[in-house]
Amino acid sequence: MTATLATTEPASVAPAYRAAGFADVVRSEWTKARTGPSTMWTLIATAVIGIGLGALISAVAANHHAKSSPSSKLTWDPTAVSGSGFAIAQLTIGVLGVLLITSEHSTGAIGSSLAAVPRRGRLLGAKAVVLAALIFVVTELITFASFFIVSLGRPTKDVSLY
Hints:
By secondary structure, this protein is mainly alpha-helical. The protein has seven helices and no strands. The protein has a domain at about 35-65 and about 75-155. The termini are far apart.
């Protein structure tokens, strides 16, 4: 008596490896960005420098405003004053970019990242998307906070000018 073993193959065999899509790579880079302690400290430094210097420069400008000429009083621009602290804060944004892009090289984890995402353009693009989104949100918050702080310290209009 012979026994025949019947084997049936499934209609579709799931591949053992699925290539990471761009959304998967972005999600992975977002996880790396938000779990790294240097990211949070750099963002805090950016906020402190941007808002703090904006408020300090605004206080100096408001103090100077009382002693300034009528023509310079008419050209008081709280928007320009509020953005003055942000010029220095851009340096910390550059540091954040360097940290997010190159952090894997110091630990050697870049090998596993490139093994998971062999297309280097896709990996670099995902890093750029995460960095741009993070910077956009943080700079918007800093800009609005700086503007409102400067607007609170804005000198009142001088009645003698009208």
